[in-house]
Design goal:
Blueprint: H1 3-13, E1 32-33, E2 36-37, E3 39-40, H2 41-44, E4 54-58, E5 65-69, E6 76-77, H3 80-89, E7 93-102, E8 107-114, H4 116-122, E9 127-132, E10 137-143, E11 150-154, E12 167-174, E13 178-182, E14 188-190, E15 208-211, E16 224-232, H5 254-266, E17 285-286, H6 299-335, E18 344-346, E19 349-351, E20 356-358, E21 363-368, E22 371-376, E23 386-388, E24 391-393, E25 398-402, E26 405-410, E27 413-418, E28 463-467, E29 470-475, E30 478-483, E31 494-495, E32 504-505, E33 509-511, E34 514-516, E35 521-523, E36 529-534, E37 537-542, E38 565-568, E39 571-574, E40 578-580, E41 587-592, E42 595-600, E43 611-612, E44 621-622
Antiparallel strand pairs: 1-2, 3-16, 4-5, 5-16, 6-15, 7-12, 7-16, 8-9, 8-15, 9-10, 10-11, 12-13, 13-14, 14-17, 18-19, 20-21, 21-22, 23-24, 25-26, 26-27, 28-29, 29-30, 31-32, 33-34, 35-36, 36-37, 38-39, 40-41, 41-42, 43-44
Length: 625
């Protein structure tokens, strides 16, 4: 009697979600299966793409893939939108359809329905199906409709997965009975219609669905192979596969079924006595459902049923109170958040997240999560800089290579020339006499003079360092400086210690926020790259071979990129869309199969004298046009 009330409450709460089954990471996941909206657990959990510890293998049927689960597989929980879909779609019954092969001596959880509020109360799940091939047991844990108390049911015949063989299994759960379908064997039924309710299938608002293990319990991981794992919100009134010897299975396709009937018409069996179906002696277990009408209840029994229902409603109300308090806490936390991306401040200007701008003709900057990152434009030949004696210089920059040498960086190459000294022209005919013992004639002067020091205040013979790379001396009243020569480095990452002139190779790398020492080999946190630290440079190789490769594919929780769109600085660009590269109107780019391809716009020559630039356009135009 609780189910209609809760179904009405769920309909009101989740009305916006009832229009269609849930999506997963913007992927169109079809949920249609034999005219039922089943949830494909392997697809919903992205198992068929990339999960640590899962590898593709051969399935039960030829041409059907399976997925091997090892101990490294993490605990898998469905996204909450699937729970919402199940809450809004379930109508008094649930169905499980599994095709799997379990390893020997493994006690694994097949499926778990959890409620955090109920776990806090008694530490037990709402629903859990486990298979133990060591003790040969298949157990169903559930909740009773009276007070939602935990209970369990040991299914007869042991675990069908024992013996490490492929098994096709379906379980139909409703409030009165449990039906077990295995391959093409006789179905096993617990309970019957008309008897007292057996299972409590009222699903709470904080429902969590876990697959192949119980969260927080490493020993509960299922080890073996999965080919099919599905949940039906409408249950399975018959086995969801075809068996020639069973009338409770799905029919053959029309052409095969028609041919089968034609063969049966030609060979009719001889009439014989009707077969009797043997019933079990146990109270809840039967091979065929009983046709007997339900017994009438007296007033005392009806009052007892009503009292149990009220106690169940009180228990559910306490769970809803706990869930409501948790939801209020989340809402308050969300209300205190600013739902906007952090902006960047650069030289007095504000930029939004993902904005790009030019720092100069050769450097482009981008705002990412509140931080500004600038990089050299390698697409322009005139932009690459130079490295000389351990220091970097931008294109076109001039610098001193010594007291008599001038250098310039041009197109990635350093060119140095000797400075030319102008000839000295002496206008005075006579020089004044000097009284010192060793007079000198300074450069660019005509007459000798006595020297006691240099014009910058240093005494004669003094030596000092002008900067970490320049050594100077005072000789004959003239300051002479020499620049230290640094060796060329082959490493990509280098650093210069304080007080030192020449850079050295950085022997430490960093991956996922962790420092790596020289020669250390590690795997990235997402499991997608094998990396090594060599001469301060992090060198990585893909951990798996991807069928499609692209430079700007979208990462959707998988090591292999989705090449149907492009991800450029966090912006998702649809395939075939053209756009300006780095905000420059002269760069025309297009997203093509997950790769961004850019070309430089060619501008026509203008014959007019007065020209003007148009904001947002690459090419200049004649004024007045």
């Amino acid at each position: 009697m609780l189910t209609p009330c809760w179904n009405l409450l769920l309909t009101l709460l989740f009305h916006p979600c009832l229009c269609q089954p849930p999506g997963h990471h913007d992927l169109d996941v079809p949920l249609q299966y034999y005219d039922d909206n089943v949830i494909d657990l392997l697809e919903a959990l992205n198992v068929t793409r990339s999960i640590k510890g899962v590898t593709k293998s051969k399935g039960r049927e030829p041409g059907s893939p399976a997925w091997k689960f090892r101990q490294r597989v993490p605990h898998l929980t469905l996204p909450w939108d699937y729970s919402v879909y199940l809450l809004s779609s379930t109508q008094g019954s649930l169905g499980l359809h599994l095709v799997a092969k379990q390893a020997k001596n493994n006690q694994g959880t097949l499926l778990t329905f959890l409620s955090p509020a109920a776990m806090k109360r008694d530490g037990r799940p709402l629903l859990r199906l486990t298979s133990d091939t060591r003790s040969d047991q298949l157990r169903l844990e559930y909740r009773t409709p009276q007070g939602m108390e935990p209970a369990s049911l040991l299914l007869p015949g042991g675990s069908p997965f024992s013996g490490s063989r492929w098994v096709r299994l379906a379980l139909n759960l409703d409030i009165h009975k449990v039906t077990l379908f295995q391959d093409c064997e006789e179905p096993v039924v617990f309970g019957q219609d008309g008897e007292e309710e057996m299972l409590g299938l009222i699903l709470p608002l904080d429902l969590e669905i876990s697959f192949a293990s119980s969260p927080g319990d490493k020993a509960s991981k299922f080890l073996g192979y999965w080919q099919t794992a599905e949940i039906s919100p409408n249950g399975f009134s018959r086995r969801p596969w075809h068996c020639d010897n069973r009338a409770d299975s799905l029919p053959l396709p029309y052409s095969l079924s028609e041919e089968r009937h034609m063969e049966e018409d030609e060979t009719q069996p001889e009439p014989g006595p009707p077969q009797l179906h043997a019933l079990s002696d146990t109270r809840h277990y039967q091979q065929q459902q009983s046709e007997a009408p339900p017994p009438l209840l007296n007033q005392g029994e009806r009052l007892q049923r009503l009292d149990e229902a009220l106690r169940g409603l009180a228990s559910m109300l306490e769970m809803v109170k706990v869930q409501n308090a948790d939801l209020l806490t989340r809402v308050k936390a969300l209300e205190s958040c600013e739902c906007r991306r952090p902006a960047c401040s650069w030289e007095g200007s504000e930029y939004r997240d993902s904005d790009t701008w030019k720092m100069d003709a050769c450097n482009i900057c981008v705002c990412v999560a509140g931080s500004v990152t600038c990089s050299l434009r390698k697409d322009r030949p005139q932009c690459p800089g130079c490295s000389h004696e351990g220091r970097s210089y931008s294109n076109g920059e001039t610098f001193s290579g010594g007291s008599c040498t001038s250098c310039v960086c041009q197109n990635g190459a350093v060119s140095c020339t000797q400075k030319e000294c102008l000839p000295v022209t002496c206008t005075q005919k006579e020089c004044l006499p000097v009284t010192c013992r060793d007079p000198v004639t300074p450069r660019n002067e005509c007459c000798p003079r006595c020297v006691t020091g240099c014009s910058d205040g240093h005494r004669e013979g003094a030596a000092w360092r002008k900067d970490p790379c320049t050594s100077c001396t005072c000789q004959n009243g003239t300051v002479q400086c020499e620049r230290e020569s640094c060796p060329d480095l082959t490493c990509a990452k280098r650093h210069t210690l304080t007080g030192q002139c020449c850079a050295t190779c950085q022997q430490v790398c960093e991956l996922d926020g962790r420092p790596l020492s020289q020669g250390q080999n590690v795997t990235s946190a997402d499991g997608c790259r094998h990396c090594a630290c060599q001469d301060g440079e992090l060198r990585c190789t893909p951990a798996m071979h991807c069928p499609n490769t692209c430079t700007h594919g979208v990462r959707r929780g998988s090591c292999c990129p989705d090449c149907s769109a492009c991800d450029l600085h966090g912006d998702i660009i649809s395939n075939g869309v053209t756009f300006q590269g780095n905000g420059d109107p002269c760069d025309s780019c297009v997203c093509r199969d997950g790769s961004v391809l850019c070309v430089r716009v060619s501008c026509p020559k203008l014959s007019c004298a007065l020209q003007e630039e148009v904001p947002g356009e690459c090419c200049r135009r004649c004024q007045g046009e």
